[in-house]
Amino acid sequence: MRVVICGAGQVGFGIAARLAAENNNVTVIDRSPQLVTAIRDTLDVRGFVGHGAHPDVLAQAGADEADMIIAVTLFDEVNMIACQVAHSLFAVPTKIARVRAQSYLKKHWSNLFSRDHMPIDVIISPELEVGEMVLRRLAQPGAVETISFAEDKVAVLGILCGDDCPVIDTPLVQLTELFPDLNATVVGIVRNGKLFVPHSRDQMFAGDLVYVVTETGRVKRTLTIFGKEEQFGARIVIGGGGNIGFYVAQNLEKRNARAKIKIIEANHERAIEIAEALDRTVVLNGSALDAAVLKEADIDQADTMIALTNDDKVNLLTAALAKQLGCRRSVSLINEPALSPLSRTIGIDAYINPRAVTISRILQHVRRGRIRNVHTIQEGAAEVIEADALETSPLVGKALRDLHLPDGMRIGAIIHKKDVITPTGDSRILPGDRFIIFATADQVPKVEQMARVSLEYF
Fold first, then answer.
1. Contact at 8 Å (CB) between 145 and 212?
2. Residues 58-80: what's their mean pLDDT?
């Protein structure tokens, strides 16, 4: 696949790295010579210095032969115009743009991005995606990560196993015998920083981060079996009143009447703006890194502190300080992957990576075959993929035990019509079913092949 990426920042670099590693033909455009040099020196991609929306720069980058353009610069208007130029002048088949400004995304303006106006196939709003992930994290405080699939019928949970976890030191094959109502599948384990897909004889140990697939209606029971019985915490303090913080507060007000929300926002004008737009949220003007301000927000009585500013270091320190001052749980927004390992060492319960969320949404449209949804795990070490089972797929018709799936791949759930099935060795995937599969990065191409119609290649 030939892909042109406009923007060599964190997201653009991350997408280029993933696609180049999978032997795609990738070209990156950015106005910064330093970023272009860095990406050329690091990855097997071509790089051009220039404006991503200018026709001559796109032509130089090979847009006339591109299968896809991904516009993820810092500027919405550049991203949109780049897609328009790619469509009008170069007939690029698939156009993806990151759009941050919420005014473009209001429902009554949805016709703006139609083929007759500004033909963008996929609009990605990191603020909305990350905001929803934060809300899911708040709803399931026992999980360090919660991902939704199959129109919210299936959940993938990241669960940290403590010393008191009832299911540790037990072979996976015995879990159903010990917990007959555990309708869940353990698909991945992170141990000592390394991720692997377990076999039925493997065990979970204290300190493991375990990825579990279950029906959404069984999430609370699954967490209870793993020793995580925490309930939704109604008292929430949000550090940062930007787009994400505002979105989270606004939706908490709508979705949970019990929620008592406070936002700490450093910018005075922004604090006034969001205070006027919110109904039940208390907005404090000040720094979330100021212990006095946190105490004014009653942080010692708060159930959860969520640090959502634009500065990773501020977020990490705010979340750590909140825990030190008595907050029960803390969550930090972290853009820079190198800072993620620090979160656990300084006592932060969970972190959310906006870059990973954006990359996951883009990969959903890059993946070949009948792929419906994709989410990257552990900085791209693995992916959870939701795909259609086509009649020609090698997965269809056989009992799962007879498929002999390679190491690094495990089916977590089957969606048959409206039912979610926890797979066993006797389970079969039928034509028209959907399946949720966990795959390490090196196995993703095989999953794509399984989701293709083989007749396409005759």
1. no
2. 94
